[in-house]
User: Fold this.
Amino acid sequence: MHEPSTIAHAHVDAYANQAHAPQSYSVFILTWVALMALTCVTVGASVYLPGTVGTAVAMAVTPLKASLVLLIFMHLKWEPVVFRWMFLSAVGIMAVFMSLTFFDYLYR
Assistant:
């Protein structure tokens, strides 16, 4: 029978072997530039397209920005597939609830 500490170390070693290769700074800089550009789109839409259209643009751009942060800065892109599916299912559920909220607001 293995000691618990031996099992714990084996688990940690198995996860350590799955580590991804370090990414270059250019990946992070390009992601940051994309986030800044999408922020400019959101601010521009709120200034030049006030009302429903500006809100719709902001609600479309925000999940994209969150996806970039999660995939690149939080390294979800290099994790096993099961974590990506968990993220995509959470985004899908969020999209359903956001659309239901818009329908509720639309018919008041």
Notes: The chain has a mean pLDDT of 81. The two ends are 66 Å apart (CA to CA). The helical segments are 4-16, 25-48, 52-73, 81-106. The chain has four helices and no strands.
